[in-house]
């Protein structure tokens, strides 16, 4: 028996040996069944000799096992995604070459969205498509071989935006369908729980508020009036962190009834406080919050627009001026006062770093032997011992005006790093959701403090799924985009005043997708005001390869002092894909003036700003008690002079502390802005296209 096994291995290799083991196991099992005789050697006949069909040229046994075609597509992971595209999938199979063409649902993917990391794996980003199953085709460009997986990928009937939110719930999500037949009677469920405050826009557009749920990815379903169900699996990720889609204004036009929902911004628990609809307490409609954090207000004064203030014990007050809709949701930050701690240290909220994810992969250079790692050929040789080749991995910044900071060198990838196809990297502390990672590689010079870094090449991977507390592996980044372009801007900043601004900070970033920007090592320039002439950036990437769908994002900030203090006037988010022609940057706001609260004692009710130019939004924050209690007031740009209720007269709620106050006031311009659909995230400067801000001191 041992000789036959040896011959099987010698003649059949692994295929023969594997087949022998399988057949031996079958015979062994059969010999144990009732009524069976002694076990037979599967490679012998009754005489103990192998049958002729199993003999090779040397008398050894042979077995034929069909492994299928040498070039094939076996499956996709994940196997589904939104009809809008953008899903990062791994295509498994065999016989892949480094040069392949992928077609999904009849759409040929651009080469920048396809990366074959080895003969059995391809990473691709799906295009948009029609809901339902579609074929996936892979073509070997060097041999013209084609392999097709029928119905290999399924497009979901709708996409959910945003795709992440807090475990406390309250995130307003928008479901955008394609060829759906939704009605006002459709029911939305998130993780099997009702999605409340449903707004029906049309047959392809629904919105609602997410329920609370544990961290992780969940399904969303829409049950239609006829009983049919539209489903998007793993469409929403819960994580223990607040988001910019919780809270704000929405609903139908205000017509006598107002619903105010109030929650703690850190824990998501319902508030114990009061909702005030009106500019003065004497005429306002008020109602307490119930156990679910809801306050229902009715009255003839609740028509057209009304100012809504929410105040609660141990929480910072908040006011929306001239609310034109029937639903307001607020998340109030707690007051960090010893009297509010209830014997415990102040909470850090419901955010835990352990809920972040991690991304692992390799930085891959081309130019070597197929599916073997190549040298860093597009990075110059260091000029001296103080210089060395390094690469760093980043996630996008939410602020295109941000400053580039060199990460710790302990996180660097170098030519000495381990790897198979490339050079290993690990990026930790990634917020859950679908994200983008990008890498910059170049020369770091340690002769200066802090070290300098000049990037020469860039790579990017999009649609990377990150779940809370998990590691996403195999995210390889092709390092193919050279930073060999220049970009020229012609700034037209505001005239400097006696209190500022006195300098211009110009930044150039790369827009990688909605709300995400790649900051560049040489992407910031500062000049004193007044300034004349052009500013030129170097070390700018070409918008090709993985950056083919990106754009340049230019911002100019007129600031005061070397630390960028107030007064400030900013023009942000100027997008272009053209690096050949200079871009003029104008449209700066003049610095607004705060009339009330003024230098004299403030009475606590009158707010007045003076500003020029069309204004979409104004945000006023009055700070008292050394920052202990802050009252945030949000108003439409059409009303910069208004009255707010004197909440110091409301019992059992936090109000401003009498004494010195500091007032920060901002005016903003936002493309496509509608005050009636204002979300919390739009109160942040990163969401504004232009703004000006200043600070004034006074007393209360």
State the total count of DSSP E strands: 48
* DSSP strand content: over 45%
- Give the distance, in angstroms, between the N- and C-terminal Cα atoms: 99 Å
Return the structural class: mainly beta
Describe the global form.
globular
Number of helices: 1
**Radius of gyration using CA atoms only:** 32 Å
Main sheet properties: 12 strands, mixed
Unreliable residue runs: 1-59, 343-353
Mean pLDDT: 88
Q: Looking at the chains present, what oligomeric state does this protein adopt?
A: single chain
Lateral arrangement of strands in the main beta sheet: 22-21-24-25-45-44-47-48-40-39-36-37
Helix content: under 10%
General description of the model:
The chain is mainly beta. It is 4% helix and 47% strand. It is built from one helix and 48 strands. The strands form ten sheets. Strands 22-21-24-25-45-44-47-48-40-39-36-37 form a twelve-stranded mixed sheet, with no helix packed on it. The chain has a five-stranded mixed sheet with strand order 2-9-8-4-5, with no helix packed on it. The radius of gyration is 32 Å and the shape is globular. The protein starts with a helix and ends with a strand. The relative contact order is 0.09. The model is unreliable at 1-59 and 343-353 (pLDDT under 50).
Briefly, what is this?
With 700 residues, the protein is mostly beta strands.
Question: Main traits of this protein?
Answer:
globular, twelve-stranded mixed β-sheet, 1 helix, 48 strands, five-stranded mixed β-sheet, mainly beta, 700 residues
Question: In terms of topology, how is this protein built?
Answer:
Blueprint: H1 2-31, E1 72-77, E2 80-82, E3 88-94, E4 100-104, E5 107-108, E6 114-118, E7 121-125, E8 132-140, E9 146-156, E10 158-161, E11 164-166, E12 172-177, E13 187-190, E14 193-194, E15 196-202, E16 205-209, E17 216-223, E18 229-239, E19 248-253, E20 255-264, E21 273-277, E22 285-288, E23 294-303, E24 306-312, E25 318-323, E26 325-332, E27 357-364, E28 387-394, E29 423-430, E30 433-445, E31 452-466, E32 471-472, E33 477-478, E34 481-482, E35 485-491, E36 503-513, E37 516-528, E38 535-540, E39 551-560, E40 565-576, E41 583-585, E42 593-596, E43 606-610, E44 617-624, E45 629-636, E46 641-643, E47 660-669, E48 690-699
């Amino acid at each position: 028996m041992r000789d036959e096994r040896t011959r099987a291995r010698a003649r059949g290799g692994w295929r023969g040996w594997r087949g022998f083991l399988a057949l031996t196991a079958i015979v062994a099992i059969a010999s144990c069944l009732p009524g069976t005789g002694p076990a037979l050697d599967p490679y012998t006949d009754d005489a103990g000799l192998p049958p002729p069909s199993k003999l090779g040229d040397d008398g050894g046994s042979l077995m034929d096992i069909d492994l299928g075609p040498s070039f094939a597509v076996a499956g996709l992971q994940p196997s589904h995604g939104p009809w809008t595209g953008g899903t990062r999938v791994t295509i498994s199979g065999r016989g892949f070459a480094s040069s392949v063409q992928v077609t999904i649902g009849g759409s040929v993917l651009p080469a920048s969205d396809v990366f074959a990391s080895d003969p059995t794996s391809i990473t691709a980003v799906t295009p948009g498509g029609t809901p339902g199953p579609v074929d996936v085709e892979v073509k070997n460009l060097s041999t013209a071989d084609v392999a097709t997986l029928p119905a290999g990928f399924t497009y979901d009937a709708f996409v959910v935006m945003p795709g992440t939110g807090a475990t406390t719930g309250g995130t307003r999500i928008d479901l955008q369908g394609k060829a759906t037949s939704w009605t006002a009677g459709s029911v939305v469920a998130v993780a099997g729980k009702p999605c409340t405050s449903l707004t029906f826009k049309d047959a392809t557009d629904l919105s609602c508020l997410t329920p609370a749920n544990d961290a992780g990815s969940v399904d969303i379903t829409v049950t239609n009036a006829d009983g049919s169900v539209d489903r998007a699996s793993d469409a929403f990720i819960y994580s223990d962190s607040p988001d910019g889609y919780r809270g704000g204004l929405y609903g139908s036009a205000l017509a006598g009834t107002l619903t105010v929902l109030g929650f703690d911004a850190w824990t998501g628990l319902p508030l114990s406080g009061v909702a005030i609809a009106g500019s003065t307490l004497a005429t306002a409609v008020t109602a307490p919050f119930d156990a679910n954090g809801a306050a229902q207000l009715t009255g003839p004064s609740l028509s057209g627009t009304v100012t809504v203030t929410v105040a609660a014990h141990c929480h910072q007050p908040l006011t929306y001026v001239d609310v034109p809709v029937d639903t307001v949701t607020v998340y109030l930050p707690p007051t960090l006062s010893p009297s509010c701690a209830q014997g415990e240290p102040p909470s850090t909220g419901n955010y835990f770093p352990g809920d972040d994810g991690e991304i692992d992969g390799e930085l891959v250079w081309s130019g070597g032997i197929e599916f073997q790692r190549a040298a860093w050929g597009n990075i110059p040789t260091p000029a001296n011992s103080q210089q060395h080749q390094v690469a760093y991995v980043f996630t996008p910044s939410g602020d295109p005006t941000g400053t580039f900071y060199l990460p710790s060198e302990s996180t660097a990838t170098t030519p000495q790093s381990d790897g198979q196809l490339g050079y290993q990297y690990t990026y930790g502390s990634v917020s859950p959701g679908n994200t983008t990672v990008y890498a910059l590689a170049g020369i770091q010079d340690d002769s200066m403090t802090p070290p300098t870094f000049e990037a020469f090449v860039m790579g990017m991977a999009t649609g990377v799924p990150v779940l809370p507390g998990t590691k996403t592996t195999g995210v390889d980044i092709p390092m193919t985009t050279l930073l060999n372009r220049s970009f020229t801007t012609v700034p037209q900043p505001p005239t400097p005043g006696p209190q500022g601004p006195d300098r211009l900070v110009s930044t150039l970033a790369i827009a990688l997708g909605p709300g995400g920007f790649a900051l560049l090592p040489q992407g910031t320039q500062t000049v004193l005001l007044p300034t004349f002439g052009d500013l030129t950036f170097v070390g700018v990437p070409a918008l090709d390869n993985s950056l083919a769908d990106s754009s340049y994002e230019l911002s100019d900030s007129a600031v005061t002092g070397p630390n960028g203090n107030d007064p400030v006037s900013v023009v942000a988010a100027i997008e272009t894909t053209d690096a050949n022609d200079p871009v003029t940057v104008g449209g700066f706001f003049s610095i607004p003036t705060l009339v009330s609260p003024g230098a004299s004692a403030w009475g606590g009710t009158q707010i007045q700003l003076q500003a020029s130019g069309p204004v979409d939004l104004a945000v006023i924050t009055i700070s008292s008690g050394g920052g202990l209690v802050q009252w945030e007031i949000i108003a439409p740009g059409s009303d910069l002079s208004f009255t707010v209720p004197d909440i110091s007269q409301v019992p059992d709620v936090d109000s401003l502390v009498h004494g010195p106050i500091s007032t920060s006031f901002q005016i903003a311009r936002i493309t496509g802005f509608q005050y009636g659909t204002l979300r919390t995230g739009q109160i942040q400067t990163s969401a504004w296209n232009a703004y000006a801000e200043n600070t004034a001191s006074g007393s209360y």
